[in-house]
Design brief:
six-stranded antiparallel beta sheet; 48% strand; 103 residues; globular; Rieske Iron-sulfur Protein; single chain; mainly beta
């Protein structure tokens, strides 16, 4: 199976310590910038209709703005309930000033 790279955004689009939502190729993704490193997970919270790109970020944890559960941005693992199902994360590749994921 071949790996496909999908372009998401420019590195300058995501200020350090924040996230943006990117809709592309049928995916709704949250792109995070933590200390200049980029991480990507599904934007839709696994527990409900919350958008993780709109949630508050503390260190490497994002809190869902809907039910206040939280996830580790780097691994997608649940940090706080009521969330129970980890978030899907994607392998990120940065080339120059462009952020891609591999799927």
């Amino acid at each position: 199976m071949s790996v496909q790279k999908i372009e998401l955004c420019k590195t300058s689009d995501v200020t350090e310590g924040t996230a943006i939502k990117v809709d592309t190729h049928g995916l709704e993704l949250a792109v995070f910038n933590l200390n200049g490193a980029f991480y990507v997970m599904d934007d839709q919270c696994s527990h409900g209709p919350g958008s993780l790109s709109e949630g508050p970020i503390c260190g490497d944890v994002v809190e869902c703005d809907f039910h206040n559960g939280s996830f580790n941005i780097k691994t997608g693992e649940v940090v706080d309930p009521p969330c129970m199902i980890p978030q899907k994360t994607y392998k990120v590749v940065t080339e120059g000033e462009t952020v891609f994921i591999e799927v």
